[in-house]
Amino acid sequence: LGESIAASTVDALPDGNALSSFFGYDNGYDVDTTLNPSQGYWVKSDMDGSIIMSTSGFGKSNRNSVDVKAFNSITIEGKNGTKQTLYFGNDAEGTINLSAFELPPTSPHGVMDARFVSGRILETYPAMLTTPAQFAIALKNTEGPVTMKWNIVSSDNKQFILSEAKGNKTITLKGSGDAQMYKPSEMYFLTVTGGGVMPKEFSLSQNYPNPFNPS
Predict the structure, then answer these.
(1) Nearest to 75 by CA among 43, 112, 39, 107
(2) Inter-CA distances, 125 with 26, 71, 113, Å
(3) What torsion do the CA atoms of 71, 39, 65, 102 make, to the nearest 10 degrees?
(4) Which of 107, 118, 161, 213 could make an SS bond with 191 (beta carbons 3.0 to 4.6 A apart)?
(5) Who's near 208: CB < 8 A, 6+ residues apart?
(6) Quick one: pLDDT band at residue 214, thresholds 50, 70, 90?
(7) 3-state secondary structure 41-53
(8) How far apart are CA 138 and CA 150, in angstroms?
(9) Whole-number Å distance between alpha carbons of 20 and 101
(10) Distance separating alpha carbons of residues 124 and 107, to the nearest angstrom
(11) Residue 27 and residue 33 in contact, taking contact as beta carbons nearer than 8 Å
(12) For residue range 105-154, what is the model confidence (pLDDT) as tens digits?
């Protein structure tokens, strides 16, 4: 790359070939919206073909134009400086292509790796939940202490609970906060509950019939 370009201007050939999000690595994977010179990126292609990079800014609209930074997040930090941020939130319209957010292969042996068990960096749930939604998070090559940091940017009238697989610790995620796991588990569960419709208007009507005048 001779200059920085927007990831949304990158297209794939032949027609019908689709690209995933672009992932960069800086002590952990993250979705990059800008591709910078001399940097390496990982991207998944649906089939063999060519990648076309346009610096004109008139490339086709990328199907993955979802800003993960707008979602709630959990960041898992290891003691050696490695970290991984995972995102989750409401997909009210059901239009997000989650396969575009499958993370690259796990980090080399000995390097901390954290991801949803689905292999994705992003998980979504519907606006209305009839039953709780649960997402498993797997940790590898992790020695304590591990710091869990969360940032709830939109609760959508939901409750978020992070728990160890062994049930030794449970945290309700609200606002921004952090907690240390001195003996981290290899598996955690993020549970999303709630989501009932909130009333938009309130009113108080006259009681009927009048309990004090049966006639």
Answers:
(1) 112
(2) 28, 12, 24
(3) -70
(4) 161
(5) none
(6) low
(7) CECCECCCCEEEE
(8) 16
(9) 7
(10) 24
(11) no
(12) 987 777 889 999 999 999 999 988 889 999 999 999 877 789 999 999 99
Residues 154 and 125 sit within 8 Å (Cβ to Cβ): no
How much is the mean pLDDT over the chain? 87
Confidence band of 23 (pLDDT split at 50, 70, 90): very high
In sequence order, what DSSP letters do the residues of 128-174 get, joined into one string?
S-SS-EEEEEEEES--S-EEEEEE-S--TTEEEEEEETTSS-EEEE-
Phi, psi values for residue 93, rounded to 5°: -95, -5
**Tokens of residue 43, six digits:** 């991207």
The C-alpha R_g of the chain, in whole angstroms, comes to 22
